[in-house]
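Internal tracking record. Fields below are filled automatically when a chain is submitted to the structure queue. Please do not edit lines marked as system-generated. If the sequence contains nonstandard residues, flag them in the REMARKS field before resubmitting.
Queue: standard
Priority: normal
Entity type: single polypeptide chain
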Amino acid sequence: MDEQTVRELLRVVEDPDLGEDIVSLGLVNDIVVEDGNVRVSLALGTPYAPNESAIADTVRERLADEGIEASLSARYERPDAAAEQPLAGVKNIIAVSSGKGGVGKSTVSVNLAAALAARGARVGLFDADVYGPDVPRMIGSTDQPQVTADEELIPPTKHGIKLMSMAFLSGEDDPVIWRGPMVHKVLTQLWDDVAWGDLDYMVIDLPPGTGDTQLTMLQTIPVTGAVVVTTPQQVAIDDARRGLEMFGRHDTVVLGIVENMRGFRCPDCGSEHDIFGAGGGEELAGDTDLPFLGGIPLDPDIRTGGDEGAPIALDAESPTGTAFRELGGAVANQLGIVNRRALAERRAE
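SYSTEM-GENERATED OUTPUT FOLLOWS
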């Protein structure tokens, strides 16, 4: 048994999304055969993504079929993760956006972060909504950031999620009245002066619309991909299209569309009611050739969880919690496609 033999065995392992074998795609970093032991390093940069976990399982099974018990590891270097880059220790940066307010973007951000953390990932959540920083309440965090000797902020942790919010920079009831240059300055400091450490995912909750905060982020942060949240009605869909145009102008990958408030099941009679219509987000995804990441029902328990700081994604018994956990898997899978495709293209050059 030697390295080349193992490599040839792995040529039958296909990437389920890219449609080629993992060797041809350059997803095998290294193979070491020593004293009968086989160690395989895979270029998988999206921890706990269902499809990447499936690739690793298939590698184990393929080698086991040949009587080889291999140890696997994952090593993936973000192409833009230079030491001077903001958030260089974060593998995947997810911007959650909406074209208009009131569609539940912050709710999706909080529950997406919770769903990823529940999978075992190291997750950060940055509440960049300058004028409505509600995430600390929604996640149940009452702690303030601590400060290191180097004057870096240490983000508090709740539900396994490291949190930073614009709310920490203002009083609880104080209005935030900042012009564009001030927004840019504060956001830049929070990119640079927070000790996030090494994270698998950073979820950034953006304010609605296409203003200064969004432009600052897209110009300074290496966003891996964006998630666009909408409700089914046409007004929200129209505004979501404008958000898609913003990401397109900045060459930011859009991971897909989430349709929030998709339908309401009456707890008394059990009937379904499409209060905000139905299918608008899914139709938008089809029209723009983007993945439809999933639909989240209109559920009073979401509001209760947000008010009490208990994200419904962590409720294993809740169908709505299941919908959010499935959303987490769908987002992770799309990030995996972005990462593996970029890696394959770099290694083919």
